[in-house]
TrEMBL record:
Name of the protein: Protein Wnt
Keywords: Developmental protein, Disulfide bond, Extracellular matrix, Glycoprotein, Lipoprotein, Secreted, Signal, Wnt signaling pathway
Protein family: Belongs to the Wnt family.
The encoding gene: WNT4
A molecular-function term among this protein's GO annotations: frizzled binding
PROSITE patterns on file: WNT1 (PS00246)
Pfam families assigned: wnt
Organism: Crocodylus porosus
A single GO BP: cell fate commitment
InterPro entries: Wnt, Wnt4, Wnt_C, Wnt_CS
Subcellular locations according to the entry: Secreted, Extracellular space, Extracellular matrix
Length: 338
């Protein structure tokens, strides 16, 4: 299957350039995204108004990945000199599984949000949600059109794997994790309501369906990362499928993340493979978890420095209506890996 790069990496390789333009509004821009396969370029040209949302979704995915992995050896670092995340995601690791899932979720989320906010001519609010509900409230307002966002994500994100025939173990892994990312949104949709009545009473309610915050999506997928299933390819009749490598484990669901290869330890600097190592990373001296100095620094030890931090303190509320604080200085110990 070669060395496939996710659509998000291809987009984000040019993110700074595209951001400086402000929007993706010319068909020529689609051609400049050289990492995309031809069918993605064609989709880009046919859906120019949607591509800004795709770009925002890619950025959302990177920011959420970096938040979720901020205290781990691999912290979702991006490198200007290499494709985003280096070669980490070209291997079938847990980290690759998370990146594919969060990227797929990012584009579904951003496109859906654009639909609801009226930015796109091709879609709007979900009009299938209307009338009365069994719970006694009235469906009204603008329900998020998650069906459109998910469908676009499937068409644009999955086409790379499907164009080469989704039969290799890596293609099957990518497609599974793409779908798991979208499921993290679909399975966490919520109902938001507004009360109507005299003097703040709630004589009746109007409600609509809304996506969860993207942080919630990231939290769900991080939990799936922690419990990801190692898989291998098998055949059921003429169909190739992924099954747990350890037959003692229960089969994974559509919501779970799966991976093929063990991850490197991410301890040492390896720019060729996009691994920055942990030298210079801040660690927690008292923690026994992965953010603790013992694990984060891979046994190399750590430096301790005293640094002065400035904080807001002695805050008081003044009528009306502002909060006034003092600035306090204190010295704290900072620990960084050797």
């Amino acid at each position: 299957f070669g060395n496939p790069l996710t659509w998000s990496i291809c987009l984000e390789r040019y993110l700074a350039k595209l951001s400086s333009v402000g929007s993706i509004s010319e068909e020529e821009t689609c051609e400049k995204l050289k990492g995309l396969i031809q069918r993605q370029v064609q989709m880009c040209k046919r859906n120019l108004e949607v591509m800004d949302s795709v770009r925002r979704g890619a950025q959302l995915a990177i920011e959420e990945c970096q938040f979720q992995f901020r205290s781990r050896r691999w912290n979702c670092s991006t490198l200007d000199a290499l494709p985003v995340f280096g070669k980490v995601v070209t291997q079938g690791t847990r980290e690759a599984a998370f990146v594919y899932a969060i990227s797929s979720a990012g584009v579904a989320f951003a496109v859906t949000r654009a639909c609801s906010s009226g930015e796109l001519d091709k879609c709007g609010c979900d009009r299938t949600v209307h009338g009365g509900s069994a719970q006694g409230f009235q469906w009204s307002g603008c329900s998020d059109n998650i069906a459109y966002g998910v469908a676009f994500s499937q068409s644009f994100v999955d086409v790379r794997e499907r164009s080469k025939g989704a039969s290799s173990n890596r293609a099957l892994m990518n497609l599974h994790n793409n779908e798991a990312g979208r499921k993290a949104i679909l399975n966490n949709m919520r109902v938001e309501c507004k009360c109507h009545g005299v003097s703040g009473s709630c004589e009746f309610k109007t409600c609509w369906k809304a996506m969860p915050p993207f942080r919630k999506v990231g939290n769900v997928l991080k939990e799936k990362f922690d419990g990801a299933t190692e898989v291998e390819q098998s055949e059921i009749g003429s169909t190739k499928v992924l099954v747990p490598k350890n037959s003692q484990f229960k089969p994974h669901t559509d919501e779970d993340l799966v991976y093929l290869d063990s991850s490197p330890d991410f301890c040492d600097h390896d720019l060729k493979n996009g691994v920055l190592g942990t030298s210079g990373r801040q660690c927690n001296k008292t923690s026994k978890a992965i953010d603790g100095c013992e694990l984060m620094c891979c046994g190399r030890g750590f430096h301790t420095d005293e640094v002065e931090v400035v904080e807001r303190c002695s805050c008081k509320f003044h009528w009306c209506c502002f909060v006034k604080c003092k600035q306090c200085h204190r010295v704290v110990e900072m620990h960084t890996c050797r």
